[in-house]
Write a structure and sequence with these properties.
By secondary structure, this protein is mainly β. The chain contains no helices and eleven strands.
Length: 123
């Protein structure tokens, strides 16, 4: 079992940038595909991005494509989400998770989640 801790969220204005981090411990980080999801109050958790074992393959939701970058540093057991040009609709709690199957854009594809970090974007 891998323990995940997200950080880097905060209150920013529209157009600003944030770099979210997810630190893993207690397992072999490099054995997991990793994903970022987000959830706003009253909304279902939605896919943001995922990354393969060595960081060579990434995939993004249309809502963040072109302004977000997912990356990982296996030596540091950390996955990152760089978000630029933030919009008010990006406001949510952001979670990282370890994947367990090929459903990489669905919550069903993941079985281990961090506690989340709050991102709030004002206009």
């Amino acid at each position: 079992q891998v323990q995940l801790v997200e950080s880097g969220g905060g209150l920013v204005q529209a157009g600003d940038s944030l770099r979210l981090s997810c630190a893993a411990s207690g397992g072999t980080f490099s054995r997991y595909y990793m994903g970022w999801f987000r959830q706003a109050p009253g909304k279902e958790r939605e896919f943001v991005a995922h990354i393969n074992l060595d960081g060579t393959v990434t995939y993004y939701a249309n809502s963040v494509k072109g302004r977000s970058t997912i990356s990982r540093d296996n030596a540091k057991n950390t996955v990152y989400l760089q978000m630029n040009s933030l919009k008010p609709e990006d406001t949510a709690v952001y979670y990282c998770a370890t994947a367990i199957n090929v459903a990489l854009t669905s919550v069903a594809g993941y079985n281990n989640w961090g506690q989340g970090t709050q991102v709030t974007v004002s206009s």
